[in-house]
């Protein structure tokens, strides 16, 4: 991550995810944020907290960025799930250093 320049919200997302810290990760998302992952959309604080716990914290996901351009982070994701590590594209909507929209797709 040292040679990739990331927006503050993306840095915070990666740091909290890699620390497996749901309490640090939840505030990365702004009011009314949405997450699209695995064909499901999670909207609002309660659903996003559920997604954080089930998709990032419980499987102990570690995100290793490989590139960032525009609003798209390409990264390797590894953790306690079958088939890892896998490459993902994270497309971020950001406002005031918070994530307003996140779409995650496997590559």
Write the layout of secondary structure elements.
Blueprint: H1 8-18, H2 22-25, E1 29-37, E2 40-43, H3 44-57, E3 62-69, E4 72-78, E5 86-95, E6 98-106
Parallel strand pairs: 1-6
Antiparallel strand pairs: 1-2, 3-4, 4-5, 5-6
Globular, elongated, flat, extended or rod-shaped: what is the shape?
globular
Structural class: alpha+beta
Number of helices: 3
Largest sheet: 6 strands, mixed
The rounded Rg comes to 12 Å
Order of helices and strands: HHEEHEEEE
Beta-strand share of residues? 35-45%
| E-strand count | 6
**pLDDT below 50 for ≥5 consecutive residues: which ranges?**
none
Characterise the protein shown here.
There is one protein chain. By secondary structure, the chain is of the alpha+beta class. It has three helices and six strands. It has helices at 8-18, 22-25, 44-57, and strands at 29-37, 40-43, 62-69, 72-78, 86-95, 98-106. It has a six-stranded mixed sheet with strand order 2-1-6-5-4-3, covered by helices on one side. Strand 5 and strand 6 form a beta hairpin. The chain is globular, with a radius of gyration of 12 Å.
Describe the structure using short key phrases:
globular; six-stranded mixed β-sheet; 44% strand; 6 strands; alpha+beta; 107 residues; 3 helices
């Amino acid at each position: 991550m040292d040679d990739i320049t990331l927006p503050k919200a993306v840095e915070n997302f990666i740091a909290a995810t890699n620390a497996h810290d749901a309490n640090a990760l939840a505030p990365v998302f702004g009011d009314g944020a949405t997450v699209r992952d695995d064909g499901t959309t999670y909207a609002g604080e309660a659903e996003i907290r559920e997604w954080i716990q089930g998709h990032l914290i419980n499987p102990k996901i570690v995100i290793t960025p490989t590139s960032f351009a525009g609003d798209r982070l390409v990264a390797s994701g590894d953790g306690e799930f079958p088939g890892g590590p896998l490459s993902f594209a994270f497309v971020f909507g950001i406002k005031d250093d918070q994530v307003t929209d996140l779409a995650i797709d496997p590559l």
